[in-house]
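Example 431, ligand nicotinamide-adenine-dinucleotide.
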Amino acid sequence: MDTKIDTENDRIGIVGLGYVGLPLSLAFADAGYDVIGVDIDRERIEQLHDGCSYVSDVSDDRLQQHLDSTFEPTTEYEALSDVVGVCICVPTPLRKTGNPDISYVAEATEELAGVLPDGCTVVLESTVYPGATEDVVAQTFTKNGSTVGEDVFIAFSPERIDPGNEEYAPADIPKVLGGVTAACSDRAEALYAPVFEKIVPVDSSTEAELVKLIENTFRSVNIALSNEIARAAHEFDANIWRTIDAAATKPFGFMPFYPGPGLGGHCIPIDPQYLSWKANKRGVDMRLIGLADRINRNMPTYVMRRMEILLDEEGIPMPEADVLVVGVAYKANVSDTRESPALDVIGCLEDRGASVCYHDPYVRQLDTEERTYESVRLTSELLAEQDCVVILTDHSTIDFEAIVDYAPLIFDTRNALDGLTNENTDTVYRL
Ligand SMILES: NC(=O)c1ccc[n+]([C@@H]2O[C@H](COP(=O)([O-])OP(=O)(O)OC[C@H]3O[C@@H](n4cnc5c(N)ncnc54)[C@H](O)[C@@H]3O)[C@@H](O)[C@H]2O)c1
């Protein structure tokens, strides 16, 4: 079978230009491919044409360099009529019911089946439940008259990027890949080999799907364990971060996970639900996933309760309190607020009647169920006026020293103030 790839002349398509698809497009462009990026969001495509990146890991300069040569963003699927391969990077959220919403993948695949040339390789990168590459992507092409493994080559490859982590570029992260047939695996591997340092082949697309779900379920369950132990450690008057760091000195059998105000982002709170939903359909009850989810989702309420107790000790009832939330992105050094625990913490504080404002250097505006907030400037006056400052995200650019210097009461859910000592540190309380 001809799996020859010529990156100098071959064009490739990336469908969905978000946190995953945009960096992936540039990784393929770096390897020499001409990249057509397709997104249905007109505003995003216009922004990209203007050289403005909305993904913090992609600089405007880098984007512009590729726009001048090898990267073409468009809303038109027809632009994919002569590509050798396509990667699908569209969202896979949960429905209101908590069940997987695979409709974006289904819609993108329908479009692709109508425009791709014969012999094309299609790799799904969106996180899905086990079996979805076969059930949704392969089925759509089959329904359109193609034979998978002959006219079209279909595989799954989990996206494993860690937004905000400058240590690992997408191309440096080993790329797990599994085809619907052996021929599909060969084609997908040939397509990806020029881009990634290391390909990790697995036996099927379903195995590759499961790899991603294990990784993120592992994180969700271990973070839940740390959150639960943090609550116990507080009752024992023990510093949970020092305890975990000391435990991590054991050279085997322990990996540190840290507590926080809850889970966020488009992956860790969502992906385990994809696994448990599908397993449940096969008669397997994944109780640990459900329990971890409940523990993690309960953290924002716990944070609010701890703040309420601290404020009570100062004689300030929550409905009269001015509270500054520091950091609303779901994790450090990114602008992403999807599923951010800050939304729930702010919601809890609003429900209890507190006056809330927030500061986040990455997030200019935030919509909660109640209202739209704008990030405030972190000044000594603003800090001194607060009854309580709660740290929810430890962005590296935030002036934590100023917070310790001027805020009268601080609740730190990220251990961001560790090591900062001055005469005010007795006003700092940790999760
Ligand atoms: N964000 C992460 O850190 C991360 C990491 C690993 C895996 N993933 C997975 O990758 C997938 C994409 O996540 P993301 O964070 O990049 O999402 P995103 O919302 O940032 O980007 C998705 C893009 O797809 C576009 N889109 C939606 N439907 C489309 C269609 N039919 N045709 C073309 N474009 C369409 C949207 O307009 C959007 O720009 C999800 O399955 C997610 O679980 C995300």
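Summary: The chain has two domains: 11-202, 298-430.
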